[in-house]
Amino acid sequence: MFSIGFSTDTSPRGAAGPYDDRVFEGGTAVLDSFAGRCVLVVSTNYAPEHAGIGPYSTQIAEHLAGLGADTHVLAGMPHYPAWRVHEEYRGRWRVRETREGVTVHRRRHTVPARQTALRRGLFEASVLAHGALAPPRVRPDVVLSQMPSLAGGVLGAGIARRAGVPHAVVVQDLMGAAAGQSGMSGGGRVASLAGGVEGRVLRSAAVVGVVHESFTDRVAAMGVPRERVRVVPNWTHVRAPGGDRARTRARLGWPEDATVVLHSGNMGLKQGLEVLVEAARLADRDGGPGGGPGGGPGGGVRVVLMGDGHRREHLRELARDVESLVLLPPAGDEEFPEVLAAADVLAVTQRASVLDMSLPSKLTSYFTAGRPVVASVAAGSGTAREVERSGAGVVVPPEDPGALLEAVRLLAGDPERCAALGARGREYVERRLSRRAGLERITALLREASAAG
Questions:
Q1: Per-residue DSSP letters for 146-207?
Q2: pLDDT at 298 over 90
Q3: Using the 8-state DSSP alphabet, how is residue 241 labeled?
């Protein structure tokens, strides 16, 4: 297995904790431990998907390939966040391709246009069935699974067991908790079933990474010893903005005297984006997008929902008579950071029931953009704790459009505070969420799994 030149466990024994800067020690001697080894990454989401988990799985695999590992990925067909298979992959059952030195093995699966517990179950079952029937014909030295999907974790555990090699898991979302907290139709009925399967996968893993410490108690409650749990935060996967902010706003049709509140990313159930629609409706009553007391001096509040997802059409219909709300398609990779920076406030929203089942990956991009964040989320949730720890924004009660709009108004009237919050976000990224730090935490996780195996 991989050679270990130093201890990567810097937290007190028996307690979960992030790897600290000592994972960078050792230089090339540490990096050489991956040369010639075969690593299999199991992740339903992968490039060219540019939102959610896909960018992280992609950067992990490419990083490992860059360290000399023979890196393979078992993935699905690109479909997120639109929940539509990309045109060039439609009608294809299996695809083997090479991307940036990584061999990607894609398997066809169902892609539900509308999310219910039954449809999600069929999605997971199809991922599991096709992956089990046609696994990659490689013998890995270690397997790394990204969860969700639940099926991906089961596949990763099975492949590792048959090969007699260690299995490491990174928990991005907790599927059992998600079924119960997301508001998905029928979710309560499958929460215990999904949680049971999830628990078996996690208990069998050599080491479990969680992207936020708020997941640790729930993972431990599944029977995973705390000494096998590590906090491995996601990192920013977008560049810092560097363009002309005024020019970007003009191109998007955003007046300089308007206060633009932007939500970027998946439009699903757990996001509870109806709160932004209703906040925009309240802004209409206060003068609308053309001016009035709804925003900062001389302008109104405009709410922009940018992205895709199975709730997009529902939101469009709900906002049919709302003048202060605009829906935009996802921005391209190069344009994305500039659009975030062009907004005045960046919004993250979740249903009140969402507590400890996910941490929005958009936060890392928001912090990088250097704009203040308003989080309409449950107090004490992982998302609330991350926004508060960063110092980059404010938290307001979930599903309360009035509180959200009031927070935006207060920020619009205090440019110095906005600048300070934005600066803290960028500082937080540099201190904790750099790509280098994030990728080194993942390689440390794999080294630890290999030592344990």
A1: EES-HHHHHHHHHHHHHHT--EEEEESB-HHHHHHHS--BTHHHHHHHHHHHHHHHHHHSSE
A2: no
A3: P
- Who contacts 91 (Cβ-Cβ below 8 Å, separation ≥6)? none
- Give the CA radius of gyration of the chain: 22
How far is the C-alpha of 142 from the C-alpha of 166, rounded, in Å? 5
Query: Tens digit of pLDDT for each residue in 236-271?
Result: 988 999 989 999 999 999 999 999 999 999 998 889
CA dihedral sign of residues 245, 246, 248, 249: positive
Taking CA atoms, 110 is separated from 119, 161, 162, 224, 264, in Å, by 9, 26, 26, 31, 25
27: buried, middle or exposed (CB in 10 Å: 19+, 13-18, 0-12)?
exposed
Tokens of 423: 């600066």
Rounded to whole angstroms, how far apart are CA atoms 295 and 413? 8
**CA-based torsion, 281, 282, 284, 290: positive or negative:** negative
- DSSP secondary-structure letter at 12? P
**Segment among 61-65, 170-174, 279-283 with least mean pLDDT:** 170-174
How many C-beta neighbours within 10 Å does residue 148 have?
25
Alpha-helix residue ranges (DSSP H) falling in 253-381: 274-285, 312-318, 336-342, 362-369
Q: What whole-number percentage of the chain has pLDDT above 90?
A: 70
Beta strands in 87-141 (DSSP E): 94-99, 102-107
C-alpha span between 292 and 296 (Å, rounded): 9
- Continuous segment of H or E residues that includes residue 428: helix 415-432
Strand order in the sheet with 102-107: 94-99, 102-107, 70-76, 38-42, 142-147, 167-171, 207-210, 229-231
Beta-bridged to residue 115, according to DSSP, are: none
Tokens of 9: 């466990």
Q: What is the DSSP string of 361-389?
A: THHHHHHHHT--EEEES-TTSHHHHHHHH
Mean pLDDT highest for which of 9-23, 113-127, 320-334? Answer: 320-334
Residue 360, C-beta contacts closer than 8 angstroms, at least 6 positions apart: 265, 348, 350, 383
